[in-house]
Design a protein that fits this description.
Layout (H helix, E strand, L loop, with lengths): L23 E3 L5 E3 L26 H8 L2 H12 L3 H25 L1 H20 L5 H23 L7 H23 L3 H25 L1 H18 L6 H28 L9 H20 L7 H5 L9 H10 L7 H16 L7 H23 L6 H8 L5
Antiparallel strand pairs: 1-2
Helix pairs in contact: 1-5, 2-3, 2-5, 3-4, 3-6, 4-5, 6-7, 6-9, 7-8, 7-9, 8-9, 9-14, 10-12, 10-14, 12-13, 13-14
């Protein structure tokens, strides 16, 4: 069953004003990666407009059209199930999942009950039924019919709603490309190198078309993604490569690419189309996040000589820099729960530093980097649609760097 992974919260960098990390560290997948400054990028894709504001009276036509692209895949899945063709049903389900991966973020954001009905209660049940030793074809056909009906309901519902931020439209091609990598990973797990290579090449072909969306928010994350892509491509080109050779390279690529997706996801989910400018409260929260990042940056060189000093960078208790920004992040929790993920990353870093036996410098550096990456995602949570606002850029660049 192709269950959705909780997607990839890792990445490479923060804004210029947030931190500079000069030393090479090991990324979570084990390959070396240099975490460095992410310079604010002045250009933006057309859909990543400064405020992302919607025109009054408009409805989510583009959004409903995007969701409509999944309907043919749902129909093919139903047809394969109706013919009781297991192989065709499995393939059609995989094709459906790839199409759904691209657009599900719209429904997930607008209506969690509808999203749960479509994915968990219907799609996952079909997947489980197809994976069973014997198939209950009538029950599977009922589920497939329900899936199509729910897409119709979703399209009708969304068509009457005001549009979300255009940042959601940027997420669609990013997620659509990643779907091919997820299939690649599954194919490698199954030992199907031919399929893995085919879907990897699909991702490789799509990446240039979406790369600017990652570069916009983190040039370093983009560079690490390209490095991971090149490493994987070189190994895929080796006729002697095995699934064991390729699996960690694809995992690293998913991790690096996934961080770029997560940055944009955080900004899209907290974008407010009625909001016209960054507020003083936002600036306060960004300053507090900068302090969290600076604490992490300053703590790493203290390991292992000064364990309490190193551990202080991951503090989350009362009076800590995290505690100061926590309310602003928790106010966004309905859209994206960055407060909890940042707290977890900080706590994991602190726990690792103080663990016994003493961990390696590389392990601690990797945990430090993961925490810094969560600060970057939290920053996007506060910024929302204003990342390309020149006034915001000037404010961020004026924050302390040490």
């Amino acid at each position: 069953m192709r269950k959705r992974n909780a997607l990839l919260a890792a990445g490479a960098c923060l804004a210029t004003s947030i931190l500079t990390v000069g030393s090479a560290v090991a990324d979570p997948a084990g390959s070396p990666a240099a975490a460095s400054v992410a310079v604010l990028h002045s250009g933006a894709p057309a859909s990543s407009a400064l405020t992302g504001s919607a025109q009054p009276g408009r409805t989510a036509i583009k959004e409903s059209r995007s969701i409509s692209t999944v309907l043919p895949f749902a129909q093919r899945w139903r047809q394969a199930i109706a013919h009781r063709d297991l192989a065709a049903s499995l393939q059609a389900g995989e094709d459906y999942e790839a199409a759904w991966q691209a657009v599900e973020v719209y429904i997930n954001h607008r209506s969690l009950p509808l999203y749960t009905d479509i994915e968990v209660d219907t799609q996952f049940q079909i997947d489980a039924g197809l994976a069973a030793p014997t198939q209950d074809w009538p029950a599977l056909l009922n589920l497939a019919d329900h899936l199509r009906q729910q897409f119709g309901a979703a399209i009708d519902f969304i068509s009457s709603q005001p549009p979300l931020s255009p940042l959601f439209d940027d997420l669609v091609p990013l997620r659509g490309a990643r779907a091919q990598l997820l299939i690649t990973r599954s194919a490698l797990t199954a030992g199907d190198l031919t399929k893995a290579k085919r879907t990897f090449n699909k991702f490789k072909a799509r990446f240039p078309g979406v790369e600017s969306l990652i570069t916009l928010r983190s040039p370093t994350a983009d560079q690490e993604t390209k490095d991971a892509l090149n490493a994987a491509a070189a190994k895929f080109a080796d006729p002697a490569a095995t699934a064991a050779d390729l699996t960690p390279l694809v995992a690293t690529l998913l991790d690096r690419y996934g961080f770029g997706v997560n940055l944009l996801n955080a900004a899209a989910r907290t974008a407010n189309v009625k909001k016209t400018a960054i507020t003083d409260a936002d600036k306060t929260a960004l300053t507090q996040l900068n302090n969290v990042a600076l604490g992490l940056k300053a703590s790493l060189p203290k390991f292992p000589a000064d364990l309490p000093g190193a551990a202080a960078g991951g503090a989350t208790g009362p009076g800590s820099d995290f505690a100061l920004v926590q309310p602003a992040l928790e106010a966004k929790a309905r859209m994206v729960n960055t407060a909890a993920t940042l707290r977890s990353a900080l706590a994991a870093y602190q726990t690792l530093v103080l663990s016994s036996p003493t961990p390696s410098t590389a392990e601690v550096a990797a945990a430090n980097k993961r925490a810094l990456e969560q600060v970057a995602i939290a920053q996007q949570t506060i910024v929302g649609q204003f990342w390309t606002d020149p006034a915001l850029q000037a404010f961020l660049q004026g924050l302390p760097t040490s």
